[in-house]
Design a protein that fits this description.
Strand order of the largest sheet of chain A: 1-10-3-4
Structural class of chain A: alpha+beta
Radius of gyration of chain A: 22 Å
Oligomer: heterodimer
Order of helices and strands of chain A: HHEEHEEEEEEEEHH
Mean pLDDT of chain A: 85
Largest interface: A-B, 62 and 61 residues
Shape of chain B: elongated
Largest sheet of chain A: 4 strands, antiparallel
Shape of chain A: elongated
Number of helices of chain A: 5
Strand content of chain A: 15-25%
Strand content of chain B: 15-25%
Mean pLDDT of chain B: 80
Helix content of chain B: 25-40%
Number of strands of chain A: 10
Low-confidence stretches of chain B: 139-151, 160-190, 269-276
Number of helices of chain B: 5
Number of strands of chain B: 10
Structural class of chain B: alpha+beta
Radius of gyration of chain B: 25 Å
Helix content of chain A: 25-40%
Order of helices and strands of chain B: HHEEEEHEEEEEEHH
Amino acid sequence: MELLSAYRKSLRVLIDATLLRAGDPSGERFSTECAIEAINEAALEFAIEAQCIIASVPVRLEQFEAIYDLAAINAAYESKDKDFGWFLRAEFIDDEGGSASNPPGRYDLLSAASVELFDRCDYALIKSDQPAWMHKDLLSPNKMTVFPTPSQSGGILPDMDKNLLVWFVGLPNSMAEVGDYPDDQIQAQYHAAIPSGAAARLLDGGGEEDLLLADALDLEFQSAVSRAVGEASRGATRYDSVRPV
Amino acid sequence: MSAYARNLSEIVEGAQRIVGDYVRPQSNGLVWAWSEVHEAANDTILDLVNRTHVLKDVRVVSLRSGVNIYDLPPDCLRPLRVGMHGASGYVVLPKSMEEVDLEGVSRAALGDPLTFFLDFLKPNQIGVLPIPYRDGSSMARDSDYGLLRRVEDGVGDVLPQDSSRPLRVIRGVPIERSGNGEIIREVVSPNGNLRVHFVRTPAIMNLPGDYPDRDIPEWVHPDIKYGVAARLLIYRRGKLDRIKLERFSRKWLRAATRLQRISEYQGLPGQGARAM
């Protein structure tokens, strides 16, 4: 029995495969540095399209603060796992108190879909110690509003009481050393497709024949992306609506 | 910054490489000057924002009695949502002048604004109807982020408050008590001002080390070079340039469409029922 991990491709292997597909096996035309940049960009495109990298970050709720810049919060988080891509889901965590009808635990923030549902301009004035809704429709992509506005601050992290846990699509860890591997959450069966996307990027600056080859390589890369999207959709229709065509 | 963030210099050089006009770092190419590629980079990002509406902001426009045409904020690309700013605020709905005409309502009527219109005005203006019959609050100290403030009177004394009432009116401006008795949060005037949510213009990149506007996701940065290259190649007539233009335009459109779909994602209303 062969483990899937045996099919992983190191950066060294990816560089060689990329240069080979770009018609430059000896690396006379494209530098290793350019190849690595193209490989990382192809891995990024793959991960964004397939939405295969999921991470979370604790968000401390601040008294009377309704808007949270998730990218900035994630960037400042000491135990950051992944760079922030975009928001998926938020949970309010209540570790104490509660009653039989309202037991302590985790509550998903429902999406308001549109702030118009609140029918008020200054919805931020409504406050509660437990936000129940979130929306993003009047904000830039990295930000989120919670509703009602927190009437008190949550615990000081890592205490999660009265704070949020936000799930997001993350960006892949980039590769720099030849012994590095693509991000753990990019499954090994798709590693072999990354050089096609990378070589297509390298060939963007070439001549007519290079561009023909780049188109073919792009097609191969997009085919792998489509397969990955299909795989990711099996049991996670939750974010299908955001999936790029 | 993540490993995928690209500054102006990297975007320009990326574009120079793929259009085949790269000579050396931070230098003119043989066909396009650095300044031309620089300008194309800023224009590309402006076009991206105009197309996808990803950058948003909110500002309060002070209303004046008898005046119903106002300038929009200077960084406004397009208004998104308008409302009366107040504890009893409400949504001000869009209406075309054609609708106003068909309804036959008086355009001279005075009252609290209920609708806004944009037609027959300059691009940077907004009109409201009915015409405001009173001034909005003259205190423009509101914050997008609900910052707490200590409100003092002219001689530096903290303004008094009544803890039995959540709202008090001081010189016509209601405030809300919070904290230990010294911190007061301005709410808004009941007379109201206009609160405008809008698509805003991106911060411009001037120096080689400048990054695109901080609210543009970093995962978009590597693709910006395609948009820049397409803007440059549109003036070229060679066969190779046309092929490149078609390829880069396609890639840029794909990237922009992806950003738009993602930025419009709101989370699903039923997501709470589904386990992670």
